[in-house]
Amino acid sequence: MIGRLAGRLEYRAADHVLIDVRGVGYVVFVSDRTMAALPGTGEAVALYTDLLVREDLLQLFGFTSLVEKEWHRLLMGVQGIGAKASMAILGALGPDGVSRAIALGDWAAVASAKGVGPKTAKKVILELKDKAPTVMAMGAAAPISGSAETGAIEDEPVIEPAAPHTAPASDGAAQSEALSALTNLGYGPSEAASAVAQALGDDPGADTGALIKAALKLLAPKG
To answer: Does residue 114 contact residue 125 with C-beta atoms inside 8 Å?
Structure first.
């Protein structure tokens, strides 16, 4: 199983790229969102990958984070969702957007992806809603980084520039920490995930503390 590639970006096509890893070229299919995040041709690049194996086909799919890769794996397990539909959903919403949509039961957001109808979108919500808390909790993981020369992890991310040390936590990190705090307070994973997703949707720039406060207000008994 090929789980990660680090090499040099040789060329881009409409839906895939060629990554040269020490003289071996790998064709990797990516979403529109991931394609836009990749560096220029000839530059170092690193991606998490998932290998699709069929009788007459081997295809690699690339992702900038483990959360994105995990959602792809889970989406592919839903009947009616193939690799093309999964990449369309991730391209339209991004991994954090998929987490929020599924946690909130927002099938319309899922259906906004090209080629995904309302019936299939509702099935995605139904089958994956219980998985949302676990995947959201992975959100603190940093974007992948690597070197085209050695394949070693380095301090500077390849896919995205390193954030200043004074910058607040990313949406994924704040989301993960808030979710952990709420579950530690005794809230169920699904209700905690839904509250955090709604709070983050209301204030995308919220840090961990703000997310926890907003989610607690949403979880407070009404009346």
So the answer is: no
Tokens 């590639």 correspond to 5
Cα distances from 209 to residues 99, 137, 169, 178, 183, in angstroms, run 20, 16, 11, 7, 15
CATH 1.10.150.20 is right for the domain spanning 67-138: yes
Give the 3-state secondary structure of residue 98: helix
For 171-218, CATH gives 1.10.8
- pLDDT value of position 155: 35
- 4-64 topology per CATH: OB fold (Dihydrolipoamide Acetyltransferase, E2P) (2.40.50)
pLDDT tens digits for 63-87? 999 999 999 999 999 998 999 999 9
Q: In angstroms, rounded to a whole number, what is the distance separating the alpha carbons of residues 156 and 89?
A: 29
Alpha carbon separation from 215 to 10, 121, 171, 192, 200 (Å, rounded): 45, 26, 15, 8, 9
Domain boundaries, the chain: 4-64, 67-138, 171-218
- Pull the structure tokens for residue 177: 């920490």
Low-confidence stretches of the chain (pLDDT beneath 50):
142, 146-169
